[in-house]
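Dear colleague,

Following up on yesterday's call, I've attached the two folding results inline so they're easy to grep. Please treat them as preliminary; we haven't cross-checked anything against experimental data yet. The first protein's sequence and structure tokens come first.
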Amino acid sequence: MKLPDPKRWFLASLSSLLSPWHDAISKIRLISDYYQPELKLAASIGGVMCATVVLAAWERHSKAKNRVRLIWFSGLFLVALLGCYLLTISVGVFWHPNYFLEVTLRFIWPTLFFLLYIFASACISLCLLIFWK
């Protein structure tokens, strides 16, 4: 039996898999309110720009190369997500960093949050290139 073309079922399957958890996932606090709303706006714009660059730059590359890139960007996305989440639940709750670490975290935390959007946009764009090319 031949499976249907992935172009027809991939997005529908992915959205139906994620739909029960969409509300819970979208309400996760990943960064302090101190950085909002400017950082969220910048991350959203950066995500769109990254998706455009990925689609334009890697459109002609083979599916195999894009699959490897998708694996890398998925891993980087998960690392950034975990980093933001661990910082959110630990800083100021049970870990109170000294002055030097606090200054360092003021750079690292927003950077991780920004990269989270970049990596997510790259993953989505690579999925489009792999399944719709």
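Below is the second protein, in the same order (sequence, then structure):
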Amino acid sequence: MFVAITSTTLTQENEHMVADSLAWFNSDRQMAELLLGISASPRTGPSLRLMDHLVGHYSKEVPVSVPGRGGVPVDLCMEYKRELQASSKKYLDAFKRHMPVEAVVLGRAVRTTLGQLRFIAWFQKLGLHEYLRDNEQAIKQHMNDKMKGTRTALAVCPKRSEAALHRGNFVMEF
């Protein structure tokens, strides 16, 4: 076991959400290492702010395709909205400070929350950590421009009129 919960203030109805995330992180040591890199101090993985910006802002303006159900690519922005509708922002938020969870990740104590655990697991399941690594500079530039109130990022990545949901050749069998 790579990740174990040591203390929580969650109700029984919320504990199943933690169990789903734990199953994901415990499925592979690399997943637990990514969790540790993001949530431990000092941080060695991507920042939660950059991860949140990718799914909440960058994907609205730049087409990002992720594997959807059945492996069919879908737009990240739409997938994030769908996930929020299914589970509520309260339970899928990188910055939610309620519902604390104390865990041991690869032998190190980590303090996190239910929302952060679920957000990081969802982010990793979609393979977004790889996309973030490959496009980190463009996403950082977009975030900085958005924070400054300038729109220079749009000169490089113009706002799309409609989401690009499918790319390539796909075979669907029923």
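For the second protein, one point worth flagging: The chain has one domain: 3-156.

Best wishes,
A.L.
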